[in-house]
Amino acid sequence: MKIKKTASYTHIISTENSVVEFVTNFNEKYSQLSEQHLIIDFSEKINIEIKDLLLFLKTSLKHQTNGFSFVIISNGIDIDDIPDEINVVPTFIEALDILEMDAIERDLGF
Question: Organism's domain of life (predicted)?
Answer without folding.
Answer: Bacteria
